[in-house]
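User: I'm putting together notes for a lab meeting next week and I want to include a structural view of one of the chains we've been expressing. I don't have a solved structure, so I'd like a prediction I can at least talk through. The sequence is below, exactly as it appears in our construct file.
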Amino acid sequence: MKNPLIHNPHVGEILKYEFLEELDISENVLAENLNVSCYTIQRIIQGKINL
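Assistant: Thanks for the context. Below is the predicted structure for the 51-residue chain, given as structure tokens.
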């Protein structure tokens, strides 16, 4: 049974709030440094790709 009071963040939320915003880097910079497309990073942040 799932507890509706506990929010399990998607990896994209963690990436956005704990890394991109905290380190003040853009999705483009991250994508370039990881050698992936910006579109891939955006889809991860939107929760459309699971890791």
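A couple of points you could mention at the meeting. The CA atoms of residues 30 and 41 lie 8 Å apart. Helices lie at 11-23, 27-34, 38-45.

User: Perfect, that's what I needed.
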